[in-house]
Amino acid sequence: MRRSPRPALLAAGALMLGVWGPAVPAAGQASVPVLAKLTLVEQPVERQDGATSWRQAVEGQPVRIGENLRTGPVGLARLELPWMVLTLSPSSTVAFPDEFLLSASLETGRVVVASESRDALKLVTSEAAVRGKGRAVIRREGGRTLVSCLEGRFLVEGAGGGVWLDGGEGTVVASGGRPLAPQPTPEPPPTLSLVPGRDPVYVAPGDPLELHWSSAEPAFQVEILPVGSDYVLIQRDVGPPPARVAIPWGGAFRWRIASRDDRGLEGRPSGDGQIAVELAR
């Protein structure tokens, strides 16, 4: 049974985090630096510290250097560092190797990097290295790395060189290759085409809901967020409309949709549609 989000999560600015210090070690163990904190866990999400088998992750736990995280087919995790946020989509695996230069390694799946104050932690894959400031989507699939800069500016490096991406630009990096020249990312579906749109649709918790929009692109990704918060609670890659989702919690939610083109690059999300889920009595 899935838990309900904490009430504080449904308000903007619910979780304010400070700078993480070193973890308090158990007796006889060396101190391992804390890198981030798990501020949202939608199961299944697992963690591994390299010396143990995979085990269930728990919201509020610290994430230390040398650990790995993976999400299941519908799992989602949000990690907060003092200067950035990293959100793992379903079916993603990220490692935080214990190396001289601090980085995160995306083995498979999709992550969203958001860093407003300074350059984000470098995120590497087998094909590329990504760093910058703003908001970017990084995917690793089919032996390629796909990077979309939604806001700000990011440097994407591959074999033999790199390219800078500004907001609304993306690139693809194949194994052993140089990143493609910056490409425009696809436009979002028109917000006015979203159904439900500005007038919320009312549903019961767990009831299937059809989402509709208009676009000629071949693929999309949909997100469900609480009203007044940037915490993504549900994220799915979907085909042409309609898409079906079921929200298990009561409350006020918003949904948005982003297009993916035939290269697989993801664009900026649309505006919001509104969904109201009845509160449990």
Description:
The chain contains no helices and 22 strands. The protein has 281 residues and is mostly beta strands. The protein has two domains: 7-21 and 33-184, Jelly Rolls; 191-277, Immunoglobulin-like (Sandwich), CATH 2.60.40. It has a 15-stranded mixed sheet that branches.
SSE order and pairing:
Blueprint: E1 34-42, E2 45-48, E3 55-56, E4 62-64, E5 68-71, E6 76-80, E7 85-88, E8 93-95, E9 103-115, E10 122-124, E11 129-141, E12 144-158, E13 161-166, E14 169-174, E15 183-184, E16 201-203, E17 208-211, E18 219-226, E19 234-238, E20 243-246, E21 251-260, E22 273-277
Parallel strand pairs: 9-10, 16-22
Antiparallel strand pairs: 1-4, 1-6, 2-3, 2-5, 5-8, 6-7, 7-9, 8-9, 9-11, 10-11, 11-12, 12-13, 12-14, 14-15, 17-20, 18-19, 18-21, 21-22
In short:
This protein is mostly beta strands. It is built from no helices and 22 strands. The strands form three sheets. The chain has a 15-stranded mixed β-sheet that branches. Strands 16-22-21-18-19 form a five-stranded mixed β-sheet, with no helix packed on it.
